[in-house]
Specification:
- The structure is a homodimer.
- By secondary structure, chain A is α/β, with parallel strands linked by helices.
- Chain A has one domain: P-loop containing nucleotide triphosphate hydrolases (Rossmann fold), CATH 3.40.50.300.
- Helix content of chain A is 38%, strand content 18%.
- The first copy, chain A, has a six-stranded parallel sheet with strand order 3-2-4-5-1-6, with helices on both faces.
- In chain A, helix 3 links the parallel strand 2 and strand 3.
- The longest helix of chain A has 21 residues.
- The N and C termini of chain A lie far apart (39 Å).
- At the A-B interface, strand 1, helix 2, helix 3 and strand 6 of A face strand 1, helix 2, helix 3 and strand 6 of B.
- Strand 6 of chain A pairs antiparallel with strand 6 of chain B, so a sheet runs across the interface.
Chain lengths: 184, 184
C-alpha cells in the first residue's frame, strides 16, 4: 500500500456506479443506510424525472432525519415514462444540478448521491464540464456518489471508486414485471 | 413482453450480486432498505466470518424491527482477517447455512439476504447442491439475495436477476484505506 497523506484520509470519496445492470441506485441507497447508521448526513438528488418509485420515498422516512431525498421536478414522482417531452427532462435535470450545487457547497451533508446523473450527462440534459466543476469545488469532506449508465470516461478519471454493474440476467427478459420492495 | 402466469407474479425472486467490484453487499443493504420501507420483513445472514464491519449492525437498528441481521459465528464481528484458520470459516459458513434454512423455511421473512454465500461456495466451505436445494424448496413468496464474488454458473442458471459488479477502479489501488459510512 502506497503512502497516503493525512489530508487524503479525511477527504470524501468520489464514487461512480455505472453499467446496464440492476443495483446502481440500490447500492447508493445501501450506502445511505450505512452512512446514516453512523449518524452521517446524506442527501440523494434525482436527475432523471420519473426514474424513482414510491419505495425510495418510503424508505427515506426510515432514515430520517439524517437522510434527505430531492426528487427531480419538485415533487413529481411517477413510474418510468419515456413519453415525456425532452424539455421536461432537461428542466428537471437542470433543477437537480442547481439543487446539488447548493446542497454540496453547504457542506452540511457528508454524502451526496447524484442519482442518474451519469445518464443525464449522456443524454446531454446537463453538461459534463459543470459536473466536473461540482466535484472539483466541493468541500473536501463531502463524498459524492454518481449513479447511472454510461458514465463518461472523464468522470471515471476523476473518481476514486468505480464499479460497473453489468447485466448478466434480468427478470424483465423473462417477461416478469417490477416487484414492490425489490425494484422500487 | 411474454405472458406471465399469476403464480409467477407473486413468486419471490432469486437475485445474485457477484463480481470483484464494490457494491454487492451495499446493494443488498439498499434492497433491505427498500423492502422495509414497504413494511416487508428482511433477514440478512453472513456467511464469511469477519466480512462485516460494525456499520452493518448500526444500520440494522435504523430498520428495526423489520430487519434482522445474523452474523456468522454467533456474534463474532471483526475486520477482515485472512489469518483465521479455515476450520473457523467452515464452522461459520455451516452455521450460517443452518440458520438460513430455518429462516427461509419459516416463511416469516419476505426477503432473505445470504451475504457472501457465493464466495463460501467457491471456497468449498459449503456445498453448491445444498444451496440449490435451499432455493428450490423455499416458500414461493420468499425472495433471496445471494451475494459474493465468483457465483457458480448453476446458481446463475436458477436465478431471476444477476448483476456482475465489475471493478473499474478502487480507492485501495491508490493506497486509500476503508472509510466509515462508505465501506463499512
Amino acid at each position: 500500500m502506497k503512502h497516503v497523506k493525512e489530508s487524503e484520509r479525511s477527504r470524501g470519496l468520489v464514487i461512480v456506479y455505472t453499467g446496464d445492470g440492476k443495483g446502481k441506485t440500490t447500492a447508493a441507497l445501501g450506502m445511505a443506510l450505512r452512512a446514516t447508521g453512523y449518524s452521517m448526513k446524506v442527501c440523494m438528488i434525482q436527475f432523471i424525472k420519473g426514474s424513482w418509485f414510491y419505495g425510495e420515498l418510503k424508505s427515506c422516512k426510515l432514515l430520517a432525519p439524517n437522510f434527505r431525498i430531492i426528487p427531480a421536478g419538485k415533487g413529481f414522482i411517477g413510474t418510468v415514462d419515456d413519453d415525456k417531452p425532452i424539455s421536461q427532462h432537461i428542466a428537471a435535470a437542470r433543477e437537480a444540478l442547481r439543487a446539488s450545487k447548493k446542497i454540496i457547497s453547504s457542506g452540511s451533508y457528508d454524502v451526496v448521491i447524484l442519482d442518474e446523473i451519469n445518464y443525464a450527462i449522456n443524454l446531454k440534459l446537463i453538461g459534463l464540464a459543470e459536473v466536473l466543476g461540482l466535484i472539483r469545488k466541493r468541500p473536501l469532506h463531502v463524498s459524492l456518489v454518481l449513479t447511472g449508465r454510461r458514465a463518461p470516461q472523464q468522470l471515471i478519471d476523476v473518481a476514486d471508486l468505480v464499479t460497473e454493474m453489468r447485466k448478466i440476467k434480468h427478470p424483465y427478459d423473462k417477461g416478469m414485471t417490477a416487484r414492490k420492495g425489490i425494484d422500487f
